[in-house]
Amino acid sequence: MDNTIKDIARCAPETTIGSALSMIKSSHEPVFVFDNNEFLGLVQPYYVLFKKRLPYTTKVKSALITPPNINDSTPFYEIANFMVATRIYFLPILNNENEIKRIVSAKNMLKEIVKKPDIFSQIAQKVKIEKAPIVKINSTVKDVYKLLREKGTTRVVLVNNKNKLVGITVRKDIEDAFIKPTDKQRSSSRKGKPINYSFDQERTTRFNVPVSKFCTRNVLSNKKHLGIENSLKKMIEQEKNSIVLVDKNNFPCGIISIRTILKAMAKFRPKKEISIIFKKPTKTTPDYEIEKIYNLIETFGQKIDKRASIKEIKINFKKSKNPTGNIILFNIMLLVEFFSGKIFVAEVKERKLILGMAEAIKRIKKQLRRS
Question: Mean of the pLDDT values across residues 156-167?
Answer without folding.
Answer: 93
